[in-house]
Amino acid sequence: MSIADIEPQSEMHGGTEGHHEDPVKVDGRQRVGIWLFIGADVVTVAAILFTYLYLRGVDTAGHWMEMEGYKGNLHTYAFWENQYLNGTLANPKAIYVGTLSAGLQWLTAGLTVVSAAVLWFGEKGLRATKNAKAFSPVAVVAMLLTLAGVVVSAIQLRDIPQIFVAVNDSITMSYTTYDSAMMAIVGSTLGHLVLLAFLGLGLAIRSARGAISGEKWYQVRLVRYFWVWVAISSVVTTLITTSINTVH
Amino acid sequence: MTTTLEHTATSAEPRGGGLARHQNFGTAIVAGVILAWVGWFVARHLFWSGSDNWSDQVATMTATGWMIGFWIGIGAFNAPFRWLVGNDNSRDEDLYYAGYKQGRARYWKYTTDHKVVGVQYIILTMSLLAVGGILAMAIRTELIVPGTHFVNQQVYNSFIAIHGMVMILALIVAVAGPWGNFVMPIMVGARDMAFPRLNALSLWTLVSAAFLLVTVLAVGGLPVGWVVLGTISDQAGVGMDFFAMTIVVFTVSTTVASINLITTVITMRTKGMTLDRLPIFVWGTMITAVLALYAFPFFFVAELNQILDRTVSTSFYVASGGGTSWLQANLFWLMGHPEVYVILIPAVAALFEISSVMARKPLFSYKTAIGAMVALSGLSALVWAHHMFTSGWAPTLGGPFMVTTEVISIPTGIFFLVLVGTLWRGNVWMRLPTLWMFGFIFNFIVGGVTGIYLSDIPLDEQLHGTMFVTAHFHYIFVGSVLFGAIAALAFWFPKVTGRFLDERLGRYSFWLVFIGVQLTFGAMFLSGLKGMPRRDASYSLAFEHTNFISTIGAYIIMAGMLILLGAIITSWRKGEPSGPNPWHANSLEWQVPTPVPLENFLEDPVITQDPYHYGEELVRP
Predict the structure, then answer these.
(1) Which residues of A touch B318 (CB under 8 A)?
(2) How many distinct structural domains can be found in chain A?
(3) Sheet strands side by side (includes A66-72)
């Protein structure tokens, strides 16, 4: 006998129609799953914040927000390198980068919170009215709000200042440790928002196509749990990074 | 528990499947290679080649292309896409994905049946052990005499790094992968895992990551050790990018698998399967999954920071930019020590299971065993800095971390008590699983006691970075975990194949591996005590004899493992038939037919007592 010989031939699976698992059980199982997923995400966000606070705490060589070099961006990479190679590069200056825009950070957090509230109210309406068609535009609005958050996050990432420093006989681009940690935090927020946009789009399509209905609404609640967690994490990270940022 | 299936007329092959009918391991490889090439091509033109990061950007895009292509090719994106467009699977499609009536082909596909996934994990684990083992032989061959004669220092260091990480991956899944999937759902009375598609996802993401890890050797290697400390990994070539991507994907795989295991145990137990009736192996896998869920996100962030440092010039670990490798060391070891217990606990829990069945006695102190596993998991999160005693990081915390590390010896000591207490005055059935269990007990004492030495700061100051440390953790990983994994394989092999694992070949294998371990790592202790540093291809004449013995021992281990491989292959094909319950065990996996039906139970079982009520009347007075 080999592995091919022991393929199960269960009589239970003769049927091809009519299998429907109890939605209450599926819901319960998926709720546990989503809470565990959120738990893992909490540790991930905590590790990113640990990184931020650790780098700020050690402030190695005073590089938390300051670095000696030349301010520029990706497009000036070749410019600085040519100057360096030609020997025409001026002496490097101490560049203080300052904090990223707190307004944009709070705007992203606000958009996430509002989108979570929209989804939550939509879910309440769905459960109360059993009108899945009316839920679809609500999910679209929530998704659009998260997409707006994606755009704001992308602007934040673009605005992180790059500094060019001379290392090992060449010019290389670098970021202060504050900017490095912020890149991870904003990038994490952006990643979460993209995932929310995907889920929002899915809920909108599914409710429009009848896969979500007044009776089958539990997936909306599962998504809402995650959505609310992302909103909370967005507020917490923004609160920390806007209140604990400079070294002195 | 009520039955959730409605049985109607029998039919032939399920009609579902759609695109999945054309997706398998082959298409995954092809799509992975194509998208890797696309990633490579796009990155070469997208990024400025004058940048210091260019090669890392190209490598990372290539690796990302490989991963995405592989997942598309195997079918991992089918379900999310169908969810998105509101087109849920029909019953037929669920049956198709479960591998119903697909013969051997289902082992090469994105199959959701937990038993198929379990077998896939067996194959994956054996493949990883083979790769890691070949590298181990290369390392020991280099060290057989002083001087560099087989490979140079850079290649040697790459072998060390890839051997280390491949073996870590293999051992993390060695017990929890095959048996957490194949038998655990049956043990709790479930028809499948809670999330069958996520089950397949965790397996195949790990496969894609494993390929990438081995590819590191082909793209310049990784001469910075498997810990990839921030201070030196910054100087590594593009192999480091592949390595970091491997870890990021691996942590996602582990997280998904952990969520699935825990949810299955919490929500899918059959009627009467209360927590105090759960088989101890189920407790072990669940506790391990909780620990993994806590620990692996740190590794994820540690390697994500590496990727950002190398591709977009951030300064997390780069000292010239204000970064610090202590950050990497903290993030790594926040994961690194719990990971030891993610590896160890499933093996120990499997041995608890085996000891009770083979001694024909109730498990000694069931609740204490659970408490010890929980305590070990909790404590493992509080000891990470003992890996950094000599690094200069937070010296004032040395004392507290020394104490927490030494306290860990209490729950590990309880493991011995439970095992020995269960075997004590039992009618021990000396079959293959029992033999490997005794090997575990001996080796784990050696590995455990030497671990207590290393937790002591004054002694660690002397022994850190020496071969003593290498010998210690090899006694844990090879001498203990691998022995436990092989015992588990021998124990549950009949449930997978319907046949016993060849007893005669298995015993030859045991004695060779057991003797090999004592020679290899016993001599390595002596090398370390004399001061031989780790991670060095060459060494002084003072270490000549002990290294020679270690290498001979390693060859003996290899011979033993090859015999075991032969035993597995021959037994799988034409071994002695075992019947459904060869060990006369009480737990649920032994009460179902072999081969196990697709959804395990013809009727949902009802549990009335724990599975350890073995013939008390047979116990010697």
Answers:
(1) 174
(2) 1
(3) A93-96, A66-72, A162-167, A170-174
Answer whether residue A148 is part of any domain.
Answer: yes
A84 touches chain B (CB under 8 A): no
Element housing B572 (H / E):
helix B544-574
A220 domain residue, yes or no: yes
Q: Which residues of chain B have pLDDT under 50?
A: 1-10, 619-621
Q: What is the pLDDT of residue B605?
A: 94
Measured between beta carbons, the chain A residues lying within 8 angstroms of B577 are: 1
How far away is chain B from the Cα of A212, in angstroms, using its nearest Cα?
8
Which structural domain range is residue A105 located in? 99-160+179-243
Residues 167-196 of chain A with CB under 8 A from chain B are 167, 170, 172-177, 179-181, 183-184
* Contact across the interface for B53 and A77, Cβ inside 8 Å: no
Instruction: Show the domains of chain B with their CATH numbers.
Output: 19-80 (no CATH), 111-618 (1.20.210.10)
Output the domain CATH number for residue A128. 1.20.120.80
Structural domain includes residue A231: yes
How many Cβ contacts (< 8 angstroms) between chains A and B? 239
**Residue A143 placed within a domain:** yes
Structural contact between residues B29 and B23, judged by C-beta atoms closer than 8 angstroms: no
Mean pLDDT computed over every residue of chain A? 88
pLDDT digits (tens, 9 = 90+) for B501-517: 999 999 999 999 999 99
Angle at B422 between CA B416 and CA B426, to 5 degrees: 135
Reported as a single tens digit per residue, the pLDDT across A28-79 is 899 999 999 999 999 999 999 999 999 999 998 889 999 999 887 777 777 8
Contact status of A12 with chain B (Cβ, < 8 Å): yes
Q: What is the 3-state secondary structure (H, E, C) of B271-337?
A: ECCCHHHCCHHHHHHHHHHHHHHHHHHHHHHHHHHHHHHHHHCCCCCCHHHCCCHHHHHHHHHHHHH
Task: Check B6 against A15: CB less than 8 A apart.
Answer: yes
* Chain A closest-CA separation from residue B353 CA (Å): 25
A210 — contact with chain B (CB < 8 Å)? yes
